[in-house]
Amino acid sequence: xxxxxxxxxxxxxxxxxxxxxxxxxxxxxxxxxxxxxxxxxxxxxxxxxxxxxxxxxxxxxxxxxxxxxxxxxxxxxxxxxxxxxxxxxxxxxxxxxxxxxxxxxxxxxxxxxxxxxxxxxxxxxxxxxxxxxxxxxxxxxxxxxxxxxxxxxxxxxxxxxxxxxxxxxxxxxxxxxxxxxxxxxxxxxxxxxxxxxxxxxxxxxxxxxxxxxxxxxx
Amino acid sequence: xxxxxxxxxxxxxxxxxxxxxxxxxxxxxxxxxxxxxxxxxxxxxxxxxxxxxxxxxxxxxxxxxxxxxxxxxxxxxxxxxxxxxxxxxxxxxxxxxxxxxxxxxxxxxxxxxxxxxxxxxxxxxxxxxxxxxxxxxxxxxxxxxxxxxxxxxxxxxxxxxxxxxxxxxxxxxxxxxxxxxxxxxxxxxxxxxxxxxxxxxxxxxxxxxxxxxxxxxxxxxxxxxxxxxxxxxxxxxxxxxxxxxxxxxxxxxxxxxxxxxxxxxxxxxxxxxxxxxxxxxxxxxxxxxxxxxxxxxxxxxxxxxxxxxxx
Lengths: 218, 311
Fold this sequence. Notes:
The complex is a heterodimer.
Chain A: H1 3-28, E1 31-34, E2 44-48, H2 55-61, H3 65-69, E3 71-76, H4 77-80, H5 84-93, E4 97-99, H6 110-119, E5 123-126, H7 145-152, E6 157-164, H8 166-169, E7 183-186, H9 198-211
Parallel strand pairs in A: 1-7, 2-5, 2-6, 3-4, 3-5
Antiparallel strand pairs in A: 6-7
Helix pairs in contact in A: 1-2, 6-7
Chain B: H1 6-30, H2 36-60, H3 62-84, H4 92-111, H5 115-137, H6 143-166, H7 180-204, E1 208-210, E2 214-218, H8 219-235, H9 244-272, H10 287-309
């Protein structure tokens, strides 16, 4: 890639990110609730519940501008890499990190892809449910990626983020958002304890995230 | 003929300046650790500065400014209301219609002064078509609850509030072109009553009106607030087509309605398990926390004036 197009892509990404953050704020009046941690420019892995394409936009809209620009969402290559348009939106405009979900068909190890991004100094957003949650459950069981990241890069904080209401603003399969108020609750970072195995950690991370839901009764 | 005079335009700013000064002195005297009530009071006064400035700008633009202002109030209130209510994925298109069609169309009816459709568009057409659309989607889970929530949302946030700008088009003999003063009368008395109830309640409040619904509403605050707001209304009669006695009586009635609006809003919030509708206005909560009294007062004020004063 030439220098010129590299600069153009950087500009495109920054403009997209800023525009989307403004749109998210105008439509949803989004407020971050920093319960267990504070906004920071430390490198982090944010993990959140997932029910809408808007989730990652809402979450990044709550971050300080510099942190927002280097925070990248991990997305499914089998969805976001499927067509040229989706690849353009996800990779070029949103600078998402595409990973292959199916272990049977994949050629590249998703952990390696994510670690490469972390080693460049970027922060990540991951949705450990592995898909958009369409069930009546508030939160699906977690996939292992979160644990693998934590073990491979123990210095990076894992911050749980509960995204409220975005699934009503922009449900799966819809493309026009309904303006409803949203909040993102940021909880205290967690890390695997010594002697805590994969399954136990994933259950604990799952429950930690669920406890952040400010209105559990609905 | 009532016209805007400089003292009239400056009056709200003078009142706010006095309020800010008093709050400033109280904060200064309380030293390093002002109590939460005082902090909240200062936030409320600061928010009032912003609201008064925004209203002044809107009123300066006349008809279009007033309609846009209240369309925005409706939008913010509607967003807060719908956020709190129960909805399902199958409601998405109805919700989009509420924000994208019903809200703009109702204010377009205000703009075109189409009174006939303005009064029935929501309570007749929307109330019948919305549940029909929901039924056509085929999702019957908590059906009645969902459609009832949607209908109350547009009733409160769109229909009732849209009566405020429609006051501009009431045809009162000898009062043409001055109807904006009806809006000012309504807002000053009803919002003034809220403030006065708050002040009397903080100073003398002991006996709660409805402890289950709202712990902050007391009989002392209510009676003091209503009495002083009625006097305020009578004093403002010079800018209305009413006599001082009529203005006082009307002010008493719309402020009582305002109180009831606040009570109903509190009951809904309690039912839904939240303290405030939102966080739009620092110190006050959401738009509906501020506009709940106006919601109940506006349509009835509108119809009283229309019935007794218009031709």
